[in-house]
Amino acid sequence: MTLNLNIAVFGGDGIGPEITDPTLKILQSLSSASDEYALSFGVAPAGAAHYASTGEALPPSSMEIARNADAILLSAMGLPDVRYADGTEISPQIDLRKALTLFAGVRPVTVRAGQESPLKIPAGKEIDFVLIRESTEGLFHTQGCGELTKDEARETLLITREISEKLFRFTFELAANRKKSKRGPGQVTCVDKANVFRAFAFFREIFDAEAKKHPDLTADHAYVDAAALLMVQKPWEFDVLVTENMFGDILSDLGAGLMGGLGLAPSADIGLEHAVFQPCHGSAPDIAGQGIANPFAMILSAAMMLDWLGIKHGNDALAADGARLRHAVETVVSEGRVLTQDLGGRAGTAQAAEAVAKALETL
Predict the structure, then answer these.
(1) The domain 1-100+273-363: what is its CATH number?
(2) Fewest Cβ atoms nearer than 10 Å: which of 45, 99, 181, 218?
(3) What is the pLDDT of residues 138-184, one digit of tens each?
(4) What is the assigned CATH class of domain 108-260?
């Protein structure tokens, strides 16, 4: 029996629609070729441009589409010159995280053999780790609502047992799946600042309690400053890292830098029932409409979506197509013949996406 799934699509701002369209074409092609699953897509208007024209950044109708979808594919959002009255950015993606309790921000970092990287990677080594960022609380808890007086400003960091337990359970399950598929050794590193902040000591205590439930996996700790150093010195030694919201925000961009830029950085924000998949980069309005935007991060985010849907629904065809799509992008990047300008090439958006589609045919 064919598994029918509905995907909510947020086209985004700036280059968002330009990288969404070729990604949907690839997904439609995969769906059409499968007897095991079928994807349908529902467009959900939102974002800075929508706010500028309607006064709503995330309309209730779009939130309803997201809630009823099997997964959410969200493109780059936000425009630097469109803001709320208080000066904060238009960020429906953060609103979705909080409304749908998407506590696990998944940020894969992968550099395959032959792929260009700012680092000098030793022969025989590849980078393949996942950073898990708690996405609903931490130092982002008071986003837009911090205390401000003439002489001082305060923000509140929040770490709760309820969310942390869910986060660590998810993290260890992901590490176990990576170990099972031979993508990692089954090592989970808690990244914190427990030597300074009581909140992070609390965070670590909850991590250690969950670690005891997984004797087949290895658990350790790293202070965030040391983790940042090791991400530059020996990133190939990491498997799965888990951390607080703000630390994860910073380290995930460092991870993108290891890959050569945000144009190769996909992400997912996952909860118990819902999940959003989106590229880590912004909407790049300065190049919008020129057909030169890098679609790889958006396509890789779609691959993560297929993989997640496959695991959630026990559908091997979905998971296999997710892996194929990821491998197709990695193949194109490693070969280096069809790269966009941000990666040192000359290809446009359509040409780069077409290269991925052709690589899929051989996998």
Answers:
(1) 3.40.718.10
(2) 181
(3) 988 877 778 888 999 988 999 999 999 999 999 999 999 999 989 99
(4) alpha beta
